[in-house]
Design goal:
With 278 residues, this protein is α/β, with parallel strands linked by helices. It has seven helices and 14 strands.
Length: 278
C-alpha cells in the first residue's frame, strides 16, 4: 500500500511538472512523500511486531517452568517465544525439553541452543505454545497458513495445556472475519482433486490447491503432502462437526481447524499490552 501511494504521488507530481512547476519543487515533494509513506508503513509493522513479542513473552513467562516438557509451535510469533525461552533458560538455568512442530521450529530450537526432543522420547507434554491465523470468540482456531497444521495439531493434542499467542489482528468474533484465505487442509497428493470436489459438494464455497511462491508447482508440507485452502461461503454453526466430516473424506490428512483445543489465548495489542482470553 505504501509503495502504491508513493507511485501515485510521483505520477501526479510528474504531471504537475509538465505544466511548468520547477524540478526542484517536485524533487522536494517526492522526497517528503517517500519518507512519510515509509515512516507510516514501518510504524504499522512495528506495532504488529511489538504485539507479537508481548504475547509471546507473556506466555513463556507464565507457562514455562523448570523441567518443563514443551511443544514449540511454528510461525512468526513463535520466533519471539523461542528467543524469550532461550533467555530464561540461560539466566534461570531452566531445564526444558522442546518438541518442534515443523522444520522451522526445529531450527529455532537448535539455533538457540535449547534441548531438542520429539514425541517418541517425550510423548507427554506439559504445555504447547503456538500461534494462530485467526481466533474466534469460542477460542476456535484456523491454523496452517504456514503449512505446518498436521504436526502442530499432533503436538497440541499431546500437551496437557495448549496456549495460543497472537497479535490483535488475529482476533475475530467468528472465523473468517479477519482470515480470508480459507481453512487449510493437508491432503495426500494423489487425492487433491477428488478432495477439492468433495469439499465443494458437501460444504459449498471454493477450494484451491495452494501454489508455491519460490518454486514451480504446489506447496509441499514437511510431511510431503499438498495443502488445499477451502474458502467457505457462510460460517458453519458447528465447526466441530464440519472438522470431523472433512477428516472423513478419503485422502485428507488433517485440517487447520483447531476446535475446543486452546485453553488460553494471549493477544498482543498495538500498544504493547497483552489481553488474555480463557
Amino acid at each position: 500500500m505504501a509503495g502504491t501511494s508513493v507511485l501515485l504521488h510521483c505520477r501526479s507530481l510528474m504531471w504537475i511538472g509538465s505544466r511548468g512547476v520547477t524540478s526542484g519543487a517536485i524533487n522536494n515533494n517526492i522526497s517528503f512523500i517517500v519518507k512519510q509513506s515509509v515512516r507510516d508503513f514501518c510504524s504499522k509493522m512495528s506495532a504488529a511486531e511489538l504485539a507479537k513479542k508481548a504475547a509471546a513473552c507473556a506466555a513463556v513467562d507464565n507457562h514455562v517452568t523448570d523441567n518443563c516438557m514443551l511443544g514449540v509451535g511454528s510461525g512468526s510469533t513463535i520466533v519471539y517465544a523461542v528467543e524469550r525461552l532461550a533467555d530464561r533458560v540461560k539466566t534461570e538455568n531452566l531445564k526444558v525439553q522442546c518438541v518442534p512442530t515443523s522444520f522451522q521450529a526445529r531450527q529455532l530450537i537448535i539455533n538457540h541452543g535449547l534441548n531438542l526432543s520429539d514425541l517418541e522420547r517425550t510423548p507427554e507434554l506439559d504445555v504447547a505454545i503456538d500461534g494462530a491465523d485467526e481466533v474466534d470468540d469460542q477460542m476456535n482456531l484456523i491454523k496452517g497458513g504456514g503449512g505446518c497444521l498436521t504436526q502442530e495439531k499432533i503436538v497440541a493434542a499431546n500437551a496437557k495445556y495448549f496456549v495460543v499467542i497472537a497479535d490483535y489482528r488475529k482476533r475475530s468474533k467468528v472465523l473468517g472475519e479477519q482470515w480470508k484465505k480459507g481453512v487449510p487442509i493437508e491432503v495426500i497428493p494423489m487425492a487433491y482433486k477428488p478432495v477439492m470436489s468433495q469439499l465443494c459438494l458437501q460444504f459449498g464455497g471454493k477450494a484451491e490447491l495452494r501454489m508455491a511462491k519460490a518454486k514451480a508447482g504446489p506447496v509441499v508440507t514437511d510431511n510431503g503432502n499438498f495443502i488445499i485452502d477451502w474458502q467457505f461461503d457462510a460460517v458453519p454453526e458447528n465447526w466441530k462437526s464440519v472438522n470431523q466430516e472433512i477428516t472423513l473424506i478419503p485422502g485428507v490428512v488433517e485440517t487447520g481447524l483447531f476446535v475446543n483445543m486452546a485453553k488460553k489465548v494471549y493477544f498482543g495489542m498495538d500498544d504493547g499490552t497483552v489481553s488474555i482470553k480463557e
